[in-house]
Amino acid sequence: MLELVIVSTLNGVLYGMLLFLMASGLTLIFSMMGVLNFAHASFYMLGAFFGYQISKFTGFWVGLVAAPVVVGGIGALVERYGLRNVHRHGHVPELLFTFGLAYVIEEVVQMVWGKLPVDYRVPAILDFPAFTVFGTNYPAYKLFMLVISVAIFIALLAVLTRTRVGLIIQAALTHPNMVAMLGHDVPKVFMLVFGVGTGLAAVAGVIAGPALVTQANMAGLLGPILFVVVVVGGLGSLTGAFAASLLIGLVQTFAISLDVSVASVLQAAGIDAAPSGGVLGDLWTVTIAQIGPIIPYLLLVIVLIARPTGLLGNREA
Amino acid sequence: MSDLADIAPSGTFAQAGSRPSIRPRGLGLVAQVLPWLVAAGILVAAPLVFTSGTALTMMSLMGIMVVFSLSYNMLLGQTGLLSFGHAVYYGLGAFFTVHAMNVVAANRLPVPLPVMPLVGGLAGLAFGILFGLISTRRAGTVFAMISLGIAELVASGSHILHSFFGGEEGITANRTKMLRLFDVSFGPQIQVYYLIAAWCLICALAMYAITRTPLGRLCNAVRENPERVEFLGYEPQTIRVTAFCLSALFAGVAGALAAINFEIANSAYLGVHQSGVVLLATFIGGIGTFIGPVVGAVVVTLLQVSLSDLTEIWQLYFGLLFIAIVMFAPGGIAGLALMHGPLLRAGTAHRLVPAYLLALGPFLLLLAGTIALIEMAFRVLVKASDGTEMTLAGISFDAAHVLPWLVAGAMAAGGALALRAVLPRVAAAWHDASEAAKEKLA
């Protein structure tokens, strides 16, 4: 039991930090433009594939730096020539623009790299077990992922709260007109934040690519979870996104390791009364591990009904 | 969501100075009935004109998609609710219909096939009430996110409830095993087509009638300004729930028609991808008008079927078309076409022809160049093992050489530059024509 708790906690925190790498950019972009970027997970996917492609020629480390820069550049261009033009039509077309973009990026990735997973490997220098808990080797690469995510989290926090640029960004989030009056180029700030946000998602992609599966459906799998994180945490709230990332990360990781169903619980209690079949029978024998993937959505629906601002948000979604 | 008002053509019409009330009242009834008679005529005559099996299959798909898109537009266009999970009701409608068909066939119940879509509609309505009550308390992003959450919940749930949803392979049914009326077996596709066409017309009429009721007007009002509706003494949530349930009902009918057409329901029916397709179709057609989703459904089905024959990467073109519509014509295809209505009525539309012809050349050049670039990239990146020789528009060349790339690149870039140079003239011609129209109608 203790083994399960320790390993799942480590994995959960790791997954949560990865989620936060993406959710931080997404929630910053939302605070600024008031639009949820549907394509955010697609930039994460682009990061993974670019990282893979670059690592084929130059090794993992160049990819770790170059892929996010390239993806961030693409993100900035998308903001400048796409979103900014759509902005005048209103929020719904903006949302739909990013929706279409996600669709197109997935198609392009499928076109270039195919539908099958690509062989994105952990760099040899990190391919060893870091330590052993209860007979399970914990890979060093996962520790590396954790260190990178935490380092970026701290750096982001420092930039946003301690530097001049960070203060201007924070001001532009709430009072864009006033900031523009003071002589700052607000559209440029928006473009910068969009670029950095998508770049952060790409960092998550590059470091998650070798550990998870780098495949054309990875954006589709992760995108909705990302929404759950930012909405549950409270739209526009970085601390909320952080808390929700960890929450979802832990919940999902623990759920996967719990092979418990109604039937097995009752059996342990000495009751053996399972319905023979049908929908009720399915519900009776389904394990928590199986419903793991839907827990975040259940959480999303419940939170939005009970508290539309999210856990720590102060503005309505 | 009030920004949907920008897309609705009412503003454009008002700007162009059209006045619907100047039409004589006596013509009103004819003008109202005529489009429906034309639509019915088209539905009846279409299989006589396009007799091939492929065409028949495609028209059946169109009919289903028209109902589905129209039901979606009850939410997005008329009530201003952006849903990412509309396929939930479509899929559940399909599943309940398939199960009902199997029950009827197994027990030899005296129920004919043509009434089965009612089962789908009722299923859609029931789940619409359930999910509508919890998701419509707020519009805007909250609603969109809850709809996404519910869609993911139901889609994942369909994999768990194996006995109802049939897992990967789905649930099948046999439409010919129902009670036969007038010796119609519904085995041949043509009979199924007429069944779909009839339901399509009934549903479209019903949905159009709803837009004319006070409820329909209140839906528009809730879209524009929910606060003011509240001041008038109506509860916006009640109106949203009602619109949501009705829309789910028609989505369920569409799902039932799909289940009858394919004789199968599987979890792809209620997946997020299906929800995306209906959103794309509706928006491409145009959400500001009643006819828009019909246009969108027809165009998208046509593209899905014909483009997938022409190229393997048709979904990419589909996505690019959607982005282009969102960026340059948020009123959709129907919105673009109807913009010209006032000018046609005023008789000044011909002034646009030279400018349009001028813009057509660069536009086609840009289009051809872009398509060539995409196809060559596809050939080189994905199909390189099959050789890099390819044929486009009857011209054979080797995509590994530099020359085709230069030509295609030059076409795309030249087209784009020329289009940019020509666009001010189009804008000027538009301004000129609409000013003239205003003077004539004033």
Question: Main traits of this protein?
Answer:
heterodimer; A: 317 residues; mainly alpha; 14 helices; 74% helix; B: 442 residues; ABC transporter involved in vitamin B12 uptake, BtuC; 2 domains; two-stranded antiparallel ribbon; 19 helices; globular
Q: Which band does the percent of strand residues of chain A land in?
A: under 5%
Task: Return Rg of chain A in Å.
Answer: 21 Å
Helix and strand string of chain B, N-terminal first?
A: HHHHHHHHEHHHHEHHHHHHEEH
Radius of gyration of chain B: 24 Å
Alpha-carbon distance between the two ends of chain A: 39 Å
Number of helices of chain B: 19
**Percent range for helical residues of chain A?**
over 70%
Q: What is this entry, summarized?
A:
Chain A: This is Branched-chain amino acid ABC transporter permease. Chain A is mainly alpha-helical and about 325 residues long.
